[in-house]
Amino acid sequence: QEKETKKEQSEEALPMVPSRKGSSPNASGIKGDKTKQNDPDSPNEKEVEAEFLRLSLGFKCDLFTLDKRVKLEERSRNLAEEALKKEITDALKLLEALVPLCEEDNQAQEIIKKLQKSLQFLGQYAVRVASKAEMLGAINQESRVSKAVEVMIQHVENLKRMYTKEHAELEELKQVLLQNERSFSSLGDQDESTNKKLPNSLNFK
């Protein structure tokens, strides 16, 4: 009779032990979080990821042709500057050729001198315009790159947030598994001690 009573007590204690499949509240909470995690990402995160992939592919493609494009643009710029200088030089030579023909015309002489000064200023301004245009192009490129970097930073922040969430869920699941393992271990020790006491009770009878 004492044996049957102890057996009933051990059977009554079994439902109180959380199962390994997650019958405890913590386990069910993790399962719910996993369901949320498996849901599709929000449109904003999807757009950021798609833009990140597009920019990454663009940077990789541009990297292969960067040196060639730099050399090509430098060559085009040098050719344009040389052509402009040649045109200004030719114009100055034509004005110098007109000077002997207009020796007696003071008004024409004044006009020729003004044209010569204007052409000289034009050459100087052309150099300044080229420098400013190059600076403007660099600033525009910096603006485009800054927007691309902003997208990349946002993508990295999304990845960090996802990692933190998954890490917290794994830690919570680890704690639940440890609690279940301790519960089963204590239950096993209790059953073992009960089995050891049974022969003594039988001998007593």
Automatic annotation (TrEMBL):
In which residue ranges is the amino acid composition biased (Basic and acidic residues)?
1-10, 31-47
Q: Where in the cell is it found?
A: Cytoplasm; Membrane
Region Disordered, annotated ranges: 1-47, 186-205
Topology versus the membrane: Single-pass membrane protein
Q: Which UniProt keywords apply?
A: Coiled coil, Cytoplasm, Membrane, Transmembrane, Transmembrane helix
Gene Ontology CC, one term: endoplasmic reticulum membrane
Q: Which residues form a coiled coil?
A: 153-180
Q: What is this protein called?
A: Lymphoid-restricted membrane protein
Q: Which organism is it from?
A: Tinamus guttatus (White-throated tinamou)
Recall the taxonomic lineage recorded for the source organism: Eukaryota, Metazoa, Chordata, Craniata, Vertebrata
